[in-house]
Amino acid sequence: MSANRLRLGVNIDHVATIRNARGGALPDPVRAAKLSAESGADGITAHLREDRRHISDDDIRRLSEEIVLPLNLEMAATEEMLAIALRHKPHACCLVPEKREERTTEGGLDVAAHHAHLAPYIARLNDAGIRVSLFIEPSRVQLMVAKALGAPVVELHVGAYCEATGADQARHLTRIREAARLAAELGIECHAGHGLTFDTVGPVAAIPEIRELNIGHFLIGEAIFTGLDRAIIRMRTLMDEARAAAGPDVA
Ligand code: PXP
Predict the structure, then answer these.
(1) Domain range for residue 132?
(2) What is the CATH number of the domain that holds 74?
(3) Which of 9, 135, 241, 246 could disulfide-link to 214, CB 3.0 to 4.6 Å?
(4) Which residues are within 8 A (CB) of 204 and not within 5 positions of it... i.e. 6 or more apart?
(5) Does 216 fall in a domain?
(6) Distance 25 CA to ligand 1 centre (A)
């Protein structure tokens, strides 16, 4: 298997959203994580929000204990979340904005504006052996600051590309390609996510420097119609086809 195989992280937050609509235990996001693993996911992503609107503390505990795939914990850079991460030691932590003022105009974490706040969190996660990723806009400034902060991974926010159409979408895709290339030049591993669907995944999957996609909302929605296993298998196939059509891997 290629060292540059594109990984799929399945975000299971919205299984918890449906569960929480009723209270109680069903549907169980941990069951969704296990089914994702059987269906070809390479990792599980879960966002423990400060308001606990979907994933709960106990979900994170159970995911840490019960799943075999690497867990990518998305979280805000707060002392509370850092303590949880250090307690469970997930494979990875992705730092995301939760407050409006932490976001760039388009939605990623504004690492340029908040570097002084973020630096100690990145350092403490790095020191604990947890792979840190920063969820940023595909912008040169954000990438340069991510590099200066010592983040080994960035996840590019591709929501604007997914929502755009026509020439506007092509423009967003160019930004993503350029950012992925710059990340590789800087020695930062590049991921992408937010808003990806069967229709939008191909051009992003074809970008050779991108190593992982994190996809949730669309897959959980599609699961209503076809089942989660089939939705993941189809997404995996579209990713692999786009990657293969794009030609040989980069090193
Ligand atoms: N990556 C990050 C950092 C996220 O916060 C999210 C959820 O918003 C996703 C990926 C997945 O996005 P979506 O649920 O739209 O597929």
Answers:
(1) 7-246
(2) 3.20.20.70
(3) 9
(4) 158, 161, 173, 176, 192, 196, 210, 213
(5) yes
(6) 23
